[in-house]
Design brief:
Helix 11 crosses helix 12 and helix 12 runs antiparallel to helix 13. The longest helix is centred in the C-terminal third of the chain and has 24 residues. It is globular and about 55 Å long. Strands 3-2-4-1-5-6 form a six-stranded parallel sheet, with helices on both faces. The chain has 14 helices and six strands. It has two domains: 233 residues, P-loop containing nucleotide triphosphate hydrolases (Rossmann fold, 3-Layer(aba) Sandwich); 61 residues, Histone, subunit A (Orthogonal Bundle). By secondary structure, it is an alpha/beta fold. The relative contact order is 0.18.
Length: 309
Amino acid sequence: MTKSLRAVCILGPTGSGKTEAALVLARSIPVTVINYDSRQIYADFPIVTAQPEPLETAQCPHELYGFLPTAQAMTAARFAELARERIAAVHETGRAAVLVGGTGLYVRALEQGLADIPPVAPEVRAWVLERMAREGSHTLHADLAKDDPETAARLHPNDTQRITRALEVLLGTGRTLSSWFAEQKRGDGDVALCKIGVSATLDELLPRLDARIVRMLERGAIEEVRAAYAKTPDREAPGFTGIGCAELLAHILGEADLGETRARWLHNTRAYAKRQLTWFAKEKDVRWVRAEGFDRLPGLVRTWAKAFE
């Protein structure tokens, strides 16, 4: 099918410099940045989820950041709807839509559409939720890893929402979530993406991630999570399941001292970056660029755009 919408998509692991890449583009091309990170959608956590800061948002419009309450969940299908609406609106302004984030499944949903998974019986979901409440996300994540290791590998053990979904699909359909995703037909979506990958190794990322955690703590990350918990005192709420939020909440609740919290936060962030590197390495048609080559980005985008003229 002919793609009716176009967008640039900057992808790569956390801490690699995706926001900087978008701002380099913004200095040469009129752009609107659209978030596709599943954690940066939450309103209560601008610091912990590394949402763009005022000096960055002043350089060009930024959308789909910090709009969702902590208690609400977001699905890939709903994100694709929101992002498609924003891309269409940006096109009307004559600007280029630039997707920036790290949630690979959101990109897949937007570009390819979603697998046609049959509805799961309510009693199946209720049974999985009861187990989640009783045994915790780490136990269910371990169970998921036995039957659907591919899905488990991309999910953090604290991610109650997505672990629940994967298990309910497995039990309700008799098939793994990864097998359903494998059936997606390429091109089912209506958005053509110019995918630009920001390249960095795990060893290069680690000191950056450590420094970023220190900066987040200095800016008030603990106070941010404490305030969010005062408003939504439910540690299983979707907003608290992200890396950083979960570790800081455990500290606030007296389960770990600050040193242990920092170490766990860095460990889990490193593991997440590793999962992202694995996921994005499988993406097709990515133009990979290292940070020192960001001056090439405007040319890459213009060359891609000419194919549609």
